[in-house]
Each structure stands twice: as C-alpha cells, then as structure tokens.
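Model it.
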Amino acid sequence: MIGLSSRCSCRGLFKKIYIIPVPCECIFSLMMFIVNNLQNFQTYFVIHGVNTRDKYQLPRPTVNLSCIKKRAFYSSIKILNSLPTYILKLKQKKPKFKVALREYLIAHTFYSLDEFLSNSQITFPLQHQ
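Modeled.
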C-alpha cells in the first residue's frame, strides 16, 4: 500500500499517517470504557479527601490471584494510572480526553502493553496544562 519493504519498521509510518497499532487500540478501548463508566469508580481524592499528586488516579483492588490481575477491569485501572497527569485531568471531559489520549498513543505507537507500562514515566512533549 505504501511501498515499504517487508523488513522496514512501521513505527514511524504509523505516526506519519496517524494510525495506532492494535495494542494501542486496546489501551484506547479500555480507557474509553473507564471514562464512559466513571460513576462506578472512585479516585483517591474522593476516598481520602486529601489533595495529593495521585488525586486523579484510581485505586486498584487488592487481589492475590493472577487470573484476576489479568482481567480487563484490573488492567484498565493499571493502564489509567499510568497515563500522564494532563490526560487524567480530562477524564470528566470525554471528547477532550479522547483526543488527548489518541494523540498520546499516536505519538508513542506502543507495540505492547508492557512497553506502554514501562514508558509511563515519560511525559508527552506537548503537555496541555
């Protein structure tokens, strides 16, 4: 379609034509699930009432079974807490959250969930404060 060889990496190409890989699409879908069902989740600020740096994050349920940790509910909270703060602040504004998340995923083009979680410390270059 584009004329690249089979050995060429598509990472730069995805950024160029604004396509996100399948793992990023899964991340996007899980985040939209949380945003669409925010009434079922409580942030740390709602629980404790203390204004901390983690106030926009969701507490993960304490579980010991790995089968529960692999489920979508638990993974989605873990993924949400790994997003940059400027995106977390937009949870209540669905259209802006959707656009900011898609821009973030296109800019980074993660090929796996582990790559996304290990990259959570790096912030997006164009932070919308």
